[in-house]
Amino acid sequence: MRIECPHCDGPINVGDRDAGTTYRCGACGRSFVVPLDIAQTGQPHQLDSFPVASLVLLHYITAGLFSIIYLNLLHDKMPRLRRNDPSATWAVGLCFVPGVNLVWFFFTYHRLCVRINEQRRFNGLPETAPTSLSVAVALLTLFGSLTYLFPAPGLVVLSVLGLIVMPVFAALVQNSINDLVEHPTVPAVGC
Ligand SMILES: [Zn+2]
């Protein structure tokens, strides 16, 4: 799509993936950050509603496996607005690489909430995806992984994570998606 250089007002063609990145104007040679909200005129999201109760039930039935895979697959349901927005394949895959996954959980769940909130903002809705809780999920996973060093506290942490924090996180994420899907997209302005 076409935007104007903030320095020289010259026309510039950018894609969705340039949003939030630094761009150097070919005409005046000065750099600027491409605004995030150009994505309003880009591809719409493909998020679907899903019953929160079923999601939580499936989480318990599969001992947490379902929510890990389900939540990470959501990355493919939204337009990529940054070059490091992960694909679903990467997002799910890295969750199962020992060691790497402990770092990855901090990134993938936080970015997921950021991306959902972005879609909500584009539709004029408040940002309700649980960004802060995503950090708590990753922290508890990290502490829980230390069970071989501290078996008793490690198991307590893992129980709190698996039985309470993770299902609550998944439910809040799905809730923010269901609410978004129920609201029709605001028509894009301009361009
Ligand atoms: Zn310029």
Short précis:
The chain is mostly helical and 191 residues long.
Can you characterise this structure?
The chain is mainly α and 191 residues long. The protein has six helices and four strands; from the N terminus they run ββββαααααα. The protein has helices at residues 52-61, 65-73, 88-94, 100-122, 131-144, 151-182; strands spanning 2-4, 11-13, 22-24, 31-33. The strands form two sheets. A two-stranded antiparallel ribbon has the order 1-2. Helix 1 packs antiparallel against helix 6, helix 4 packs parallel to helix 6 (151-182) and helix 5 (131-144) runs antiparallel to helix 6. The longest helix is centred in the last third of the chain and has 32 residues, at 151-182. It is elongated. The model has no long low-confidence stretch (mean pLDDT 90). Bound molecules: zinc ion. Zinc ion is lined by residues 5, 7-8, 10, 25, 27-28, 30.
Spans with pLDDT under 50 lasting ≥5 residues? none
Query: Strand-and-helix sequence, N→C?
Result: EEEEHHHHHH
- Strand order within the widest beta sheet: 1-2
Which structural category do the helix and sheet elements fall into?
mainly alpha
- Overall pLDDT score: 90
Straight-line N-to-C gap? 7 Å
**Strand content bin:** 5-15%
Ligands, ions, cofactors: zinc ion
Helix content: 40-55%
Radius of gyration: 19 Å
Shape, principal axes of CA atoms: elongated
Number of helical regions: 6
- The counted number of beta strands is 4
The main β sheet shows up as: 2 strands, antiparallel
